[in-house]
Amino acid sequence: MKLYSTKQIYKADQISIKKEEIVSNELMERAALQLFNWIHLRMQGAPVKIHLFCGIGNNGGDGIALARHLLDHGYNIAVYVVNYSEKRSKDFLINLDRLKDRKVWPNFMDSDDELPEINKDDIIVDGIFGIGLNRTPDTWVTKVIQHLNASQAFILSIDIPSGLFAERGTEDLNSVIRSNFVLSFQTPKLAFFLPESGRFIEQWEVLDIGLDPDYLMKTETDYELIGKNEVLMLYRPREKYAHKGTYGHSLIIGGSYGKIGAVCLTAKAALKVGSGLVTAFVPKIGYTILQTALPEIMVLTDSENEVLTSMQFELVPNVIGIGIGMGTSEKTITAFTKFLSSNKQPLVIDADALNIISNNKGLLEQIPEESILTPHPKELERLIGKWEDDFEKLAKVKKFSKKYKCIVVIKGAHTIVIKNEKGYVNTTGNPGMATAGSGDVLTGVITGLKAQGYTPLHAAIFGVYLHGKAGDIAVEKTGFQSLIASDLIENLGASFLDLFKIPEQPIVKQDNQ
Ligand SMILES: NC(=O)C1=CN([C@@H]2O[C@H](COP(=O)(O)OP(=O)(O)OC[C@H]3O[C@@H](n4cnc5c(N)ncnc54)[C@H](OP(=O)(O)O)[C@@H]3O)[C@@H](O)[C@H]2O)[C@@H](O)CC1
Ligand SMILES: Nc1ncnc2c1ncn2[C@@H]1O[C@H](COP(=O)(O)OP(=O)(O)O)[C@@H](O)[C@H]1O
Ligand SMILES: [K+]
């Protein structure tokens, strides 16, 4: 699913109005009707008090128009206009008049007004600011927002939580509505998926307000949301006459005393996603452990017992996953530096390999094109330096990816894969995966997919999706706390199978049964 920017949404809005020869308040009416239908379907006329807080722009206009529909259907409403500016939008005013025609006078709230009482069993509709927010709200508006947040009532936000910037960092996090549900028009906003801003959104859904499909289809976006539909297009079926050589050879380089387990996880994950062959290259101490834990893989060892001191081997793998549990001893740094200077194979670079590179940025020049880097937030900071906010982080990673011609997997709750100017935002995964070794599994998954012939970008996008899905399937059985990295591996098969599951159809009862 494409994630349109606010600029693109405003443009789609203008094109739709022109093409369909409608006036802009008709588009607002569509939006309001969609909001109303969504609410009415769930509330079925229940007499719960609904407080609608509306700004004076088009987000507020949506709220005012929604209030009219709720009123017409007998809902118990109270309407407030958060009067933060004199510049009321045309469509807001049209809808205000329509409400006044029904003898409803909103409560106009100004800076020194008392805040209304809200019961925790009430519902709040948040239409104060939409995507037009362009500066931090005034202190009194922030106080209104905090009052709503403190009420414990269910908050339904129109388009975006008020106070949240759609495309840049929010300076004052106290001025943001904490939404239980966001009904977002036409596209979810990128801010919904980033760690600093995503925490303000519990759930979201997109309402299609029929913006020009032609424009939407043709328009390229900077970000895409990756769900099942998107990865199904990447899936490569197994061929009937295939043999193990068809699906490539993954080499996993890593491990040190006390961290051989990490290599076990990576190597096993590579096998479990279908790599034809997997070899692990580890210090001697890992030999028995790996051969015992994973009879399916082959093991090569360094001459040293506890750390890697030379990364030389005869075999020619299709892809190398490197860095897992490797440590950063002097000898290993030297061996890795030497390895990079002669290696031509594409790499999946993780953990200590990333840390070594961060300490010697000159090594970045030696990474083969289209290599995949999989940093967690701390590793990313070491690699690209600090950032002001999530949006700056993304901009920095894009620049980095372009400069070093690599793919960066920004790991987190919504892992984002970046290649050049484009970002792919993952939708699977859960907090149960914040556990030791889950990143090692991801490295194995991406390496194993790359070995089979997936392009590096597809291996990264598909790998991140499958890894998260395995976590979502596993957590159903383990619960969040008990999920461990091995559970992810065990559920990779189920994660593939889930791609082809047909959603259960609702049972329709026939009259004569
Ligand atoms: N195509 C679509 O998807 C459709 C979108 N629709 C809806 O429109 C919404 C966008 O509406 P919008 O452009 O009127 O902006 P909105 O967010 O209501 O803000 C109002 C104005 O406030 C101002 N302002 C900004 N920050 C401020 C601050 N801190 N303190 C005080 N003032 C501040 C700023 O004006 P300024 O003062 O800068 O001139 C801004 O213009 C969108 O989210 C959706 O709900 C639907 O109607 C159907 C079609
Ligand atoms: N809250 C979360 N929601 C979804 N996925 C998560 C969450 N926390 C961590 N993960 C995933 O788990 C993995 C953790 O990787 P990493 O921090 O490298 O772990 P480790 O170093 O222990 O292997 C990443 O793929 C990340 O996206
Ligand atoms: K809003």
TrEMBL record:
The UniProt annotation places (6S)-NADPHX binding at 58-62, 130-136, 159, 262, 325, 376, 440
Indicate which residues the UniProt annotation says bind K(+). N59, D126, S162
So what does this thing catalyse?
(6S)-NADPHX + ADP = AMP + phosphate + NADPH + H(+); (6R)-NADPHX = (6S)-NADPHX; (6R)-NADHX = (6S)-NADHX; (6S)-NADHX + ADP = AMP + phosphate + NADH + H(+)
State the Gene Ontology BP annotations. metabolite repair; nicotinamide nucleotide metabolic process
Task: Give the E.C. number(s).
Answer: 4.2.1.136, 5.1.99.6
List GO molecular-function terms, semicolon-separated: ADP-dependent NAD(P)H-hydrate dehydratase activity; ATP binding; kinase activity; metal ion binding; NAD(P)HX epimerase activity
Q: How is the cofactor bound?
A: Binds 1 potassium ion per subunit.
What range(s) does the YjeF N-terminal domain occupy? 9-217
Role this protein plays: Catalyzes the epimerization of the S- and R-forms of NAD(P)HX, a damaged form of NAD(P)H that is a result of enzymatic or heat-dependent hydration. This is a prerequisite for the S-specific NAD(P)H-hydrate dehydratase to allow the repair of both epimers of NAD(P)HX.
Subunit info here reads: Homotetramer.
- Family of the protein in this entry: Belongs to the NnrD/CARKD family.
Q: What is this protein called?
A: Bifunctional NAD(P)H-hydrate repair enzyme
Gene from which this protein is expressed: nnrD
